[in-house]
Amino acid sequence: MTLSRLKPLRRLSHHLHRRSLAVTAAAVRQDTTHWAQTPLVKVSPAAESLFHISVDISDSPELATSYTKAGQYLQLRLQDPRTRPAFFAIASPPSITASEGVFEFLVKSIPGSTAELLCRLQKGDVVELSPAMGKGFDIDRISPPENYQTVLIFATGSGISPIRSLIEAGFGADRRSDVRLYYGARSLHRMAYQERFKEWESSGVNIVPVLSQPDDSWKGERGYVQAAFARAKRTFSPRSTGALLCGHKQMAEQLLLSVNLVPAWFQHFQLVSFAASAVTPQS
């Protein structure tokens, strides 16, 4: 393994460690912050083990004003004091939150978790939300679009949640020559937001679904997103390319190693890998 390939991986591990500490520190801080009681307005299946969750925050305008960038997240807790608060990435873009007074989430129902209990609730049930946290996706790092013509986005499972927010908030995709979303799931039954693909494509994002366990009728990419990207064998300039990963640490590490990303690419690279289990993308 060459030194040029080890450097970004070491920086990735350092980034993950720092982010884990930051999320833990944020959780401690949130113990003393304001929790707003908010009713659920929608709980519906999005895909196998994934649920659309919408929360009405119209009576808590401070929640809406705290959400300014795609990629932010918050804490949610149930009325049952025996359950622990959980982190969730916000799926709806800030504009929807501001105009409609809702937060939308894509939640994976993980057995024994707060997320599982949340997905069992019904419209009208009340949950408590913290203000939005985190800095969100730093789109300024790949602006203006004319200077960063290639943007590569990788997401797996419920990691598509904040990516939806990014795409629908807009980042000048239609002014770039090559914007690709490699979206991995086990099967089409586990792939959320398929009904939004046409809209996303029209905004300038080329969607590449990748299935690790498809049925025999599947004609698209198979395996994992990092392998699908490597098979594409497209050339790009590291200094005019942005990349965003939202998924498991293992996926990020394998991607960096498999495609031999040079350190220069890292200056426009963002990794999203939440430490809390409820928000960690699951395939």
TrEMBL record:
Alphabetized Pfam families for the sequence: NAD_binding_1
Q: Which CDD domains match?
A: FNR_like (cd00322)
| InterPro entries (alphabetical) | FAD-bd_FR_type, FNR_nucleotide-bd, OxRdtase_FAD/NAD-bd, Riboflavin_synthase-like_b-brl
* Biological source species: Sesamum calycinum
Q: Which GO terms describe its molecular function?
A: oxidoreductase activity
Q: What is the top-level taxon of the source organism?
A: Eukaryota
PROSITE patterns documented for this protein: FAD_FR
Residues in domain FAD-binding FR-type? 33-139
Protein's recorded name? Fruit protein
